[in-house]
Design goal:
The chain is mainly beta and 1025 residues long. The chain is built from 4 helices and 71 strands. The chain folds into 9 domains: 80 residues, no CATH class; 106 residues, Immunoglobulin-like; 100 residues, Immunoglobulin-like (Sandwich); 89 residues, Sandwich (Immunoglobulin-like), CATH 2.60.40.10; 104 residues, Immunoglobulin-like (Sandwich), CATH 2.60.40; 96 residues, Immunoglobulin-like (Sandwich); 84 residues, Immunoglobulins (Immunoglobulin-like, Sandwich); 101 residues, Immunoglobulin-like; and more. It is found in: Cell membrane.
């Protein structure tokens, strides 16, 4: 088995991606037997081997590198690894991993503890965070946020996108942002980053004075405090000036500078003790955050003089102000003192000022006032000296509303009827604003009525029943029958009166409630409009109150009680939740003030059966069996239920439920005639519930593989190729996939170019299929559509966009750079060296190049391939240096309980040919509070006209860079070149290491051979990152 796997690797490394044997595209499928997580690594090695430049054999971290000559221990460990990996049989399917990267525009990036990252950005800038994910199928991404304030909501929603972009970021948007990725395999992957928004508001200086009392006439002290406050993040640093003089603690005996207790740098107070003539001056407070994020300092000035005083104001209006609706009102506020001149603002005690308000300095005008505009309005004067001055007035808008009455029979008798010779009371009530202006007038049959011994008119105590008047008729006589009218009015006028008529006669009787026999129980169907009815008799007819009698739930309008003037409750769009008992009862208003009369109405809501599944798609191949089942969840009435099965319009089966809650329909052997939509209708008196089954032989959509290692390569200028990979979702669900239809079109174009890809044999679950797209124009993007084909026909299509993209710095697992891209893989020139490295290919080099030095081709032997080199011709001098810096690589956070740091295998090819070759050095630069450069590798002298390969293990403890330093030799025949720089997580393979080039302190000690099986076993049995 080890020999076979080694042969697979060798054949993969021997294949060049550019060799298509005259074909435009190349199709390659991964061997199913080698497609676990480790097997995915093997497949990636095969893909990497397809590059124009054959990269060094990757030292896969945490996995066994198969070799024919491995000893017995290595062979046993490898065999155990393959067996354990094969248990899952999931191919390249893998749970998600996630990492957050930023746009690089932050002011400062800090690494805290082992995993927390802080992203600092200036307020108003654009925040851009990208969630880099791996895993197959492609994980779904969701951004959420928790802020410093629990009430802060992340835009009341989540962002389902790889990139979170917030333009013009504000301070309240700082906090911890979480990226969650899940694809249904394993647990979701979650990473977070804390965003710190830096800002500095304009500082504000406030002045406070204290005047000491004369003590025994020995002295008189006047002390002034100048307080400077500015909102900021990070904490602000304050400094004071008097004129142009910088004030420091101790520089002037009459000046003291201090921070109050418990303020944590929020303010700085300048205390001027026992004011002196020189203290009357111009004071400046400078607030600074030390130019972080390029936030400039801000300054505010205050002129202190012997006239400095706190503000005072007065209102030129009455308090309160009583107005009629629709009138215009003007409030005037003027200052009576204060230096410097105060600013005047108007506020409202509750809520904001009305939208139609007009402000002009201290004058506030409301053109047409309404009852909603009533309230307390305050004028505030502030000049930052002492406390602000405040004066308020209350605006009252007249109103009369909600007129109602009730009749109270003789309280000394238990009879609820009105009888001759007994007492009866008529009460009348309104809501009035202001209540002091409310007056009542009584009339009998249109004539004014005055209080007398038998007709007693009173007004109820406002604390007991506000806005209420009573007419007591003592010893009711026949002549007292008639219509009594209560008129409510306001003394100020401008509001229409409310008039209430009450008829007292022999027919005036208390109410009675009944429910018509056919109105309870009341049966209706869900969705209908229904009227519940209670018949009310008596004179006068009171208001009827409806509520639920069987449970404490709201009525259809959302209230606990609904009013009805005719005893009818109308419900639109009845739902099943509305079934139950309803109570109707009389109200005391507009009727008799007696014990309420009640009646109950039962509402029964019938609804069609609720069934499951409402819709189900069933994918099955031909000649296979399928059984569909439709289950009843709820129904009323629950009996008698019938069912019918249909395929389209064709009736298949009917029947009636007995004791079972479901019905089934089997299809023993599917054929073209059996595919389609099956509907099962379950029916009762209220209607039908339907289960729908879509039975189809369509293949599931392919799943594009987004974790292909280095999918883009370039054979010619402005032309690139792309390694397209995918797996097939549930390939065994339907008939065998015989081909794929590949469609491709340039982004923005309408026309699709299509081609069929033949498939031989069965596709396994998780099997990775590779198809190489060539002749793509750089840097255009393309849409790719992939459709599986079976004997049933076309399956579901899936579309993705492929782009030519320059390398970025992801979470470092694998990095390879052949310097083919225009930005040379984000390598940069060092500004501190003497000259630069140059990107070159043999086909594009200067015709006047120096012979007998430098490479004749790139590392793969191509004349068109690029590499980096140093040109040592004049005017270069001996000893001059050219330094090339790699991108900054962010490593995985170290486990605090782990034994070692993460290992990486660093490899590259170098070319040193010529009689004047100088020195090639490689340094490891570790990022931290101080930058450290450790020598990693070095070589000098003529190595011949060939490319040489170097491998070095590195163990960085923090983010790092690699530096290639070329030093010119004594003459012009000293060109040095590098190519195919690779970094892979994990130690280098034993046979690839050049330990003689390792330097102590930068390169870790190699793991002893006897520890290797133990480490592999631990990595297998422990959870993977």
């Amino acid at each position: 088995m080890s020999v076979g796997c080694a042969g697979l690797l060798r054949s993969a490394h021997g294949r060049r991606r550019g060799r298509t044997d005259g074909r435009r595209f190349l199709l390659r499928r991964a061997v199913p037997g080698y497609l676990g997580s480790a097997r995915a690594r093997v497949e990636r090695a095969r893909l990497a081997a397809g590059l124009r430049k054959v990269p060094p054999r990757p030292p896969w971290a945490g996995y066994v590198h198969v070799h024919v000559k491995m000893d017995l221990v290595y062979g046993l460990v490898w065999l155990l690894t393959v067996l354990l990996e094969g248990i899952s049989g999931q191919g390249v399917y893998a749970p998600p991993t996630v990492r957050i990267v930023h746009s690089g525009l932050a002011c400062n990036i800090e690494e805290e503890r082992y995993s927390e990252r802080v992203y600092t950005i200036r307020e108003g800038e654009t925040l851009e965070l990208t969630c880099l994910v791996t895993g197959h199928p492609r994980p779904q991404i969701r951004w959420t946020k928790t802020a410093g304030s629990a009430s802060d909501r992340f835009q009341d929603s989540s962002v389902f996108n790889e990139t979170l972009r917030i333009t013009n970021i504000q301070r309240h948007q700082g906090g911890r942002y979480y990226c969650k990725a899940e694809n249904g395999l394993g647990s979701p992957a979650i990473k977070s980053i804390r965003v710190d928004v830096y800002y500095l508001d304009d500082p504000v200086v406030t002045v406070h004075q204290s005047i000491g009392e004369a003590k025994e006439q020995f002295y008189y002290e006047r002390t002034v405090f100048l307080r400077c406050v500015a909102n900021s993040n990070p904490p602000v640093r304050y400094s004071w000036r008097r004129g142009q003089e910088v004030l420091l603690q101790g520089s002037d005996k009459g000046v003291e500078i201090y921070e109050p207790f418990f303020t944590q740098g929020e303010t700085k107070i300048l205390k001027l003790k026992n004011l002196r003539p020189q203290d009357y001056a111009n004071y400046s407070c400078i607030a600074s955050v030390r130019n972080v994020c390029n936030i400039p300092d801000k300054m505010v000035s205050f002129r202190l003089s012997n006239k400095t005083a706190s503000p005072s104001i007065k209102l030129l209006v009455d308090d309160p102000i009583v107005v009629n609706p629709g009138e215009a009102i003007t409030l005037v506020c003027v200052t009576t003192g204060g230096e410097p001149a105060p600013t005047l603002t108007w506020v409202r005690s509750f809520g904001t000022l009305p939208e139609k308000t007009v402000l002009n300095g201290g004058t506030l005008t409301i053109p047409a006032i309404t009852s909603e505009d009533a309230g307390t309005y305050s004028c505030i004067a502030n000049n930052n000296v002492g406390n602000p001055a405040k004066k308020s007035t209350n605006i009252i808008v007249r109103a009369l509303k909600k007129g109602r009455f009730w009749i109270t029979p003789d309280p000394y008798h238990k009879d609820d009827n009105i009888q001759i010779g007994r007492e009866v009371k008529i009460s009348c009530q309104v809501e009035a604003v202001p209540s002091e202006e409310l007056t009542f007038s009584w009339f009998k049959n249109g004539r004014p009525l005055r209080s007398s011994e038998r007709m007693v008119i009173t007004q109820t105590d406002p604390d007991v029943s506000p806005g209420t008047t009573n007419l007591d008729i003592i010893d009711l006589k026949f002549t007292d029958f008639g219509t009594y009218t209560c008129v409510a009015s306001l003394k100020g006028g401008g509001i229409s009166d409310i008039s209430i008529d009450v008829n007292i006669s022999s027919s005036t009787v208390p109410p009675n409630l009944t429910v018509p026999q056919e109105k309870s129980p009341l049966v209706t169907r869900e969705g209908d409009t229904i009227e519940l009815q209670c018949q009310v008799t008596g004179k006068p007819k009171p208001i009827i109150l409806w509520s639920r009698a069987d449970k404490e739930v709201a009525m259809p309008d959302g209230s606990m009680q609904m009013e009805s003037y005719d005893g009818t409750l109308r419900i639109v769009n009845v739902s099943r939740e509305m079934s139950g008992m309803y109570r109707c009862q009389t109200s005391q208003y507009n009727g008799f003030n007696v014990k309420p009369r009640e009646a109950l109405v039962q509402l029964i809501v019938q609804y069609p059966p609720a069934v499951e599944p409402a819709f189900l798609e069933i994918r099955q191949g031909q000649d296979r069996s399928v059984t569909m089942s439709c289950r009843v969840l709820r129904a009323y009435p629950i009996r008698v239920l019938t069912y019918e099965w249909r395929l389209g319009n064709k009736l298949l089966r009917t029947g009636q439920f007995d004791s079972q809650e479901y019905t089934e329909y089997p299809v023993k052997s599917l054929s073209n005639e059996n595919y389609g939509v099956y509907n099962c209708s379950i029916i009762n008196e209220a209607g039908a519930g339907r289960c729908s089954f879509l039975v189809t032989g369509k293949a599931y959509a392919p799943e594009f593989y987004y974790d292909t290692y280095n999918p883009v390569w370039q054979n010619r200028h402005r032309v690139y190729s792309y390694s397209l990979q995918w797996t097939q979702m549930n390939p065994d669900a339907v008939d065998r996939i015989v081909a794929y239809r590949l469609g491709i079109r340039q982004a923005g174009q309408q026309r699709w170019w299509e081609q069929e890809i033949k498939i031989n044999g069965n596709i396994q679950k998780g099997e990775l299929i590779t198809y190489n797209l060539t002749e793509l124009i750089k840097p255009e993007a393309y849409e790719v559509r992939l459709t599986p084909l079976t004997k049933f026909g076309e399956g579901d299509s899936t579309i993705r966009v492929i782009k030519y993209s320059a390398p970025v710095n992801p979470h470092l697992r694998e990095f390879h750079c052949g310097f083919e891209d225009g930005n040379i893989c984000l390598f940069t020139q060092d500004d501190t060296d003497n000259f630069d490295w140059t990107k070159q290919s043999t086909a594009t080099r200067n015709t006047k190049y120096t012979p007998n030095t430098g490479p004749n081709a790139d590392r793969s032997g191509s004349k068109e391939g690029f590499y980096m080199y140093i040109e040592t011709s004049r005017p270069r001098l001996e000893g001059e240096k050219a330094r090339l810096l790699s991108p900054v690589f962010s490593i995985a956070p170290k486990n605090p309980y782990g034994p070692t740091n993460t290992a990486y295998c660093f490899s590259f090819f170098y070319h040193m040919y010529g009689q004047h070759i100088g020195v090639l050095n490689v340094y490891l630069r570790l990022k931290g509070q101080t930058t450290i450069e450790n020598p990693l590798w070095s070589s000098s002298g003529n190595k011949g006209q060939r490319w040489n390969e170097a491998h070095v293990n590195i163990y960085p403890i923090t983010s790092f860079q690699l530096i290639f330093e070329g030093i010119r030799g004594p003459g012009i025949e000293g060109d040095i070149a590098i190519d195919d720089v690779s970094i892979a997580e994990g130690e280098c393979a034993k046979q690839d290491l050049t330990t003689k080039n390792s330097v102590d302190g930068a390169v870790g000690i190699l793991v002893h051979l006897w520890l290797f099986p133990v480490i592999v076993l631990i990595s297998i049995l422990s959870p993977r990152r």
